[in-house]
């Protein structure tokens, strides 16, 4: 019996020792459950980090800068062939002497620039009435009427300033002065300077017509008046080189003037760049144009109007 009691006593402390081990094991297992709050602490720390990030200065916004356009180099296969010129350069026509005509006649020029016979000129152009000095007087009058006469100077009343009297009338010992814009002062007005002068000269109509007829007669005597049958160029919009080629086919005209019955805008644009060629109508033709030109080309429909202008007794 005593042995049994001793065994029970020995067994009890072993159990007691085993119990605390069992009690500690669940305590250790429960430890992870208590460690769960750390995520809450991290959640609270997150706003602080966000506040710190907000407190940092923001980086400046980068602006878009335009870059220079780069040149695209295509491959040889992708290069586009250059278009061929639409029109080949026409061969230059060498000028030849003007066609001749008997006295009192004028050579006729066809549309292609070749000579096609002669035509008799009216007596008003071939043999006008001789009047001495009329041509020179008409030329001087035309040049004088072309002056603009815009040169002008300012007298003392037109110069700005000078309203106050420079000094008192007496007591200074100097000469009396009323304005600093007087002619004897610097920056003063000009005495007897040009101011609205007119250079116009008037000539009677009969004298003007006689001078115009004598100028045409001088060209007719040397065979420098040509009658053109038709003024026609290929295409609706002739070019300057077309006019140059046509004049070269006519001959060595030099400085020429073409008188047409009506205004031709197409030929006018084509001949606008030519310094040695003028386009006129019987109304716009001036005496200076006839005297300056070396050759006068007259369109056949405009010949009658030109003769009427050169006739002394004709009505206006």
Describe the structure.
- The chain has 316 residues and is of the alpha/beta class.
- It has a domain of 150 residues: Ribosomal protein L4/L1 (Ribosomal Protein L4, Chain: A), CATH 3.40.1370.
- It has nine helices and six strands.
- It has a six-stranded mixed beta sheet with strand order 2-1-3-6-4-5.
- Helix 7 links the parallel strand 4 and strand 5.
- The longest helix is centred in the N-terminal third of the chain and has 33 residues.
Task: Describe how the helices and strands are arranged.
Blueprint: H1 2-34, H2 38-55, E1 105-109, E2 115-120, H3 123-126, H4 134-145, H5 205-221, E3 225-228, H6 240-250, E4 256-259, H7 265-270, E5 277-280, H8 287-292, E6 295-299, H9 303-310
Parallel strand pairs: 1-3, 3-6, 4-5, 4-6
Antiparallel strand pairs: 1-2
Helix pairs in contact: 4-5
- Taken in chain order, the helices and strands follow as HHEEHHHEHEHEHEH
Number of strands: 6
* Span of the ends, CA to CA: 177 Å
Spatial arrangement of strands, main beta sheet: 2-1-3-6-4-5
Structural class: alpha/beta
Unreliable spans are 14-33
* Share of residues in helices: 25-40%
